[in-house]
Specification:
Number of helices: 25
CATH topology of the domain at 447-641: Heat Shock Protein 90
Oligomer: single chain
Largest sheet: 5 strands, mixed
CATH class of the domain at 447-641: Alpha Beta
Shape: elongated
Number of strands: 8
Radius of gyration: 32 Å
Distance between the termini: 61 Å
Length: about 650
């Protein structure tokens, strides 16, 4: 029996709270409910998210999962509790995914949770949401977006030494490489994920090791390296048996069914199918991928027993399941329908769903599929020749319709291409306009009339009060240079770090003049960095230096100091701006009516646009110093060569 290879994937996620997956999660649900009256509002919100997470693992508990996640969200929003909001959105998304297979809603919930994280700065929870977002993109076939989300999860996990998240995100990247037929890279990435899991100390480490190993076995099988696939499965068999968790057991059996099928071990395959299918019928609401895969193998067994009518019922069930499901599941269903239909001689259905499979994958047919299409077309033509003249006439009409559809499709594609071109141009122009607006805002902030007036007044003091003409001329030259740099740099997207450093020195020297040298500054550059060859967005540091002076009041403290460090960190450049002033938060406490600096949201919007346009990640965050004195600004920019 010749079969299309089915690429069955397991998408791995991390549950908030490190939810332990055991055989009786309903027991802990009742324990949590019993303690609700003794909890604060924040504790109650977290308890509701734990109950929601438990229900996600309980047969028939999906609706309850949604109800308790909504309760957690309502409480958390009423008391402005970010952690509860983020976890509630996560479980609402998981419900939309697993219960309703509503992937747009799931993605929307996950993104709202991520936005809450970014607003509140509790970045340790970001990898979990990024991982979930990437998983939805993967299921819906958006592989580029999925890889980007998984990479963000990996970056943040490395930052916090979160090996559980690091392993899961890396394993999910391996799934995408497998889907893109880069099997070697997929295997290497999966092995790396298993290495990360060895360092994972969380209670989910065992389950994640099982799922990652199942992915690795599937990849070996796709290379027809059956010995490696089999060894991988047997290595984790004792672990699967030890945790007594049905989902892990079922997925292990599904992987074993694939391996037995590829090896042509039909008796062992069908015995395992009969053992697994009854349980999966009750569990199909949690994971239809597993259920339909085992049902497919049962179809093969029924073909072997010549029970064609029952096979036809399975085909019809598969066709019904093609409505409102994920791209990955749909891909498998099309292959199942084609394979079973062709085996029972229903070539019309087989040809139809093979064609759907080709369109879905949007790629050229490989040699094996071409042979299958030719074989099906010959069999279909043979059936037509044995039919009456009326059938031939219908076929001619069908051929004409296909030609019309082909021409219409080409015209529609041309129209779509034209509209896409116009839309892309419009989006580019909009981005350009937004950049110009932001640059104008930055320019207006940097050419602050108050700063210009004070600088000129300080220079006048040298002339009229101190009579020091040389100093006045020197500082007037510095002031003119600074104005010229602002005007020139504001017209450029990137300048050299060397130019930015010169600007910083001129700006700080004038500010020192303005405040009678009541503070000082240091500028430290990593010896591994060549300032003339490194590109940086212009006027990037000035708003934060100004904040240290104007809001941090560095000139009011004893031995006020601003320290600027430029370091190489991995593939990025880190700019650290530290001061020992009173701190922004303290300044707000002392002067509550004073307006916040506009430069921070403008800089945030500017870096977001640069990240989008240059496809490089620009970030910054502001935090008080560990000593409690002063503020640190951490700016991360990619290592871009200045040309």
């Amino acid at each position: 029996m010749r079969l299309i290879h089915i690429n069955f994937i397991f998408i791995l996620l991390i549950l908030f709270n490190g939810l332990k997956i055991d055989a009786q999660p309903i027991v802990e649900i009742e324990q949590i409910k019993a303690s609700l009256d003794t909890l604060t509002e924040e504790e109650k919100a977290i308890a509701y998210t734990r109950i929601s997470g438990r229900y996600l693992l309980v047969e028939g508990g999906q609706d309850s999962a949604f109800i308790f996640a909504e309760k957690a969200l309502n409480i958390s929003e009423n008391i402005s509790f970010p952690e509860g909001i983020q976890k509630a959105y996560y479980f609402l998304g998981m419900h939309s995914w697993h219960k309703k297979e509503d992937y747009p809603s799931a993605l929307s919930y996950f993104i709202k949770g991520k936005e809450s994280i970014l607003r509140n700065g509790d970045m340790e929870n970001l990898p979990t949401l990024e991982n979930a977002i990437g998983a939805v993109h993967l299921l819906t076939g958006n592989y580029d977006d999925a890889l980007a989300s998984f990479q963000l999860a990996v970056d943040e996990a490395i930052r916090y030494e979160d090996y559980a998240t690091l392993a899961i995100s890396t394993s999910n990247q391996a799934i995408i490489y497998g889907k893109l037929n880069d099997t070697i890279k997929a295997i290497e990435t999966n092995i790396q994920a298993l290495e990360y899991l060895k360092k994972d100390k969380t209670q989910d480490q065992t389950l994640n090791t099982i799922m990652t190993s199942l992915n690795l076995s599937d990849l070996y099988r796709s290379q027809q390296n059956y010995s490696a696939a089999e060894a991988t499965l047997y290595n984790i068999k004792p672990i699967v048996d030890s945790i007594d968790y049905f989902v892990a057991t079922a997925r292990y059996r599904v992987a074993m069914c694939h391996l037995l099928n590829d090896q042509g071990k039909e008796k062992e395959l069908f015995d395992l199918v009969e053992k697994t299918l009854p349980d999966l019928k009750d569990y199909q609401g949690y994971d239809k991928l597993m259920y339909t895969t085992i049902l497919y193998f049962q179809g093969l067994n029924l073909i072997h027993q010549k029970k064609t009518n029952r096979v036809q019922e399975i085909i019809e069930e598969f066709i019904a399941l093609t409505v409102n499901t994920s791209v990955s599941h749909l891909n498998n269903l099309y292959q199942y329908i084609y394979d079973l239909s062709s085996e029972i001689g229903d070539y019309q259905t087989a040809f139809t769903y093979l064609d759907k499979y080709k369109v879905l994958n949007d790629s050229l047919l490989n040699e094996e599929t071409k042979e299958q299409v030719i074989r099906l077309e010959k069999l279909y033509e043979l059936e037509k020749k044995e039919s009456e003249i009326l059938l031939q006439e219908k076929e001619n009409i069908l051929l004409k319709r296909r030609n019309i559809i082909l021409v219409s499709t080409l015209l529609v594609l041309l129209l779509i291409g034209l509209l896409s071109y116009l839309w892309i141009n419009r989006k580019r122009q909009q981005e350009k306009d937004r950049i110009n607006q932001i640059e104008q805002k930055m320019l207006s902030l940097q050419m602050n009339p108050h700063f210009i007036f004070n600088a000129i007044s300080s220079i006048q003091n040298f002339l009229f009060d101190d009579g020091d003409t040389d100093k006045a001329i020197h500082h007037l030259s510095v002031f003119a240079t600074l104005m010229r740099q602002i005007l020139e740099h504001s017209r450029k997207r990137l300048i050299s770090l060397e130019d930015e450093i010169e600007f910083i020195q001129n700006y700080l020297n004038l500010q020192k003049l303005r405040f009678n040298n009541m503070f000082d500054y240091q500028l430290n550059i990593d010896r591994n960095i060549e300032p003339a060859s490194l590109a940086i967005p212009p006027l990037l540091t000035q708003p934060f230096i100004e904040n240290a002076i104007e809001h941090g009041k560095v000139y009011q403290v004893s031995e006020g100091m601003i320290i600027i460090d430029v370091k190489k960190v991995g593939d990025n450049i880190a700019l650290l701006i530290r001061d020992n002033g009173i701190g922004i938060s303290e300044e707000k406490h002392v002067h509550p009516a004073k307006k916040e600096s506009l430069s921070i949201p403008i800089t945030e919007e500017r870096l977001g646009l640069l990240s989008s346009i240059l496809k490089k990640r620009f970030t910054f965050n502001i935090s008080p110093n560990k000593s409690g004195i002063g503020t640190t600004v951490h700016i991360s920019i990619p290592d871009i060569t200045f040309q």
